[in-house]
């Protein structure tokens, strides 16, 4: 178990580089996980995020009912799982998480799924301004209330993929289930 | 000149993989370019985007005055330029674009800067729902009204970085001016 807490004032950095995420949701005894390429950081501290969640999804229904969600950052080793939960709807398959072989644990603050094997987890609470943008734009705004990351790839307050196995790199969706892994670091800025 | 028009029904794909962007703005004879890591696609067709633009920036003032903006996707060869326009404010330096050696042309529909050397350009019009989220969350929602990309890296309707020079890869901000380049494609999904 390599997941370690990320201080909330560093949690905004988990999405800075634009990874595809898994959105976890739960209301009562119903839980779901979907894939989303359209997610980004919204603020530093308290950390906030935004994610597009279509009205047709079970995830949207569960998030609106509960007011909470989780975001997990999957890694290259999980590309098959990301495609599976992105292609199948929890509406059509109440046993979607079993069918897609998603191993998860409930987040301590929200009960939302934290997917095993992901390299970062965040639990989030929906923000009031969501009421204005969820209708016209399917946009959910949320505050991050807890965060963890795999300390093989996130340490000293930021991602360090280059020193870890390639399977732990984040995924970046292009189109139609095609992904790039995050690549190599550019030379750092000159110190002045 | 390798920039070719991108059909609007494919423009959402320009940001799917989470690159850092340059935000261009113009009002009257004042133009500016800033860097932003927090930008994402919001919808397919018509294509829409969202980007976080702090109230303290000149960019925000110009975008609010004009109702338009541009988003450019810079490449690895431009890391120095991205850091420069990210570190310096157009408020402090009216000649920021010259100081940062930003070569640009005005977009045909908006007049906003399209930065030479970037691998994609979008011109955008601010959407009405922005009124609800710009205040509390600095979030600007916009419709993409024109788009271009460098056909060495974007063709057949999506990015193909792996067949082009590494300098043309998109940049993904981690923290403090540290960037990763986008990496290698994962094996494609199995055809069924």
Automatic annotation (TrEMBL), chains A, B:
<feature type="domain" description="Flavin reductase like">
    <location>
        <begin position="13"/>
        <end position="161"/>
    </location>
</feature>
<dbReference type="InterPro" id="IPR052174">
    <property type="entry name" value="Flavoredoxin"/>
</dbReference>
<dbReference type="Pfam" id="PF01613">
    <property type="entry name" value="Flavin_Reduct"/>
</dbReference>
<protein>
    <submittedName>
        <fullName>Flavin reductase</fullName>
    </submittedName>
</protein>
<keyword id="KW-0285">Flavoprotein</keyword>
<dbReference type="InterPro" id="IPR002563">
    <property type="entry name" value="Flavin_Rdtase-like_dom"/>
</dbReference>
<comment type="similarity">
    <text>Belongs to the flavoredoxin family.</text>
</comment>
<dbReference type="InterPro" id="IPR012349">
    <property type="entry name" value="Split_barrel_FMN-bd"/>
</dbReference>
């Amino acid at each position: 178990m390599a997941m370690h807490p990320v201080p909330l004032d560093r949690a905004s950095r988990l999405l800075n580089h634009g990874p595809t995420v898994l959105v976890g949701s739960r209301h009562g005894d119903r839980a779901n996980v979907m894939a989303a390429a359209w997610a980004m950081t919204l603020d530093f501290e308290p950390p906030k995020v935004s994610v597009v969640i279509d009205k047709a999804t079970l995830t949207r229904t569960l998030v609106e009912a509960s007011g909470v969600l989780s975001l997990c950052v999957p890694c290259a080793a999980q590309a098959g799982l990301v495609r599976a939960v992105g292609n199948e709807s929890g509406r059509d398959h109440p046993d979607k998480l079993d069918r897609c072989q998603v191993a998860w644990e409930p987040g301590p603050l929200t009960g939302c799924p934290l997917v095993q094997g992901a390299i970062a987890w965040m639990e989030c609470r929906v923000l009031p301004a969501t009421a204005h943008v969820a209708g016209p734009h399917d946009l959910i705004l949320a505050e991050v209330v807890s965060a963890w990351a795999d300390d093989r790839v996130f340490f000293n307050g930021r991602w360090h993929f280059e020193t870890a196995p390639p399977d732990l790199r984040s995924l970046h969706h292009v189109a139609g289930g095609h992904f790039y892994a995050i690549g190599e670091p550019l030379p750092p800025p000159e110190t002045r």
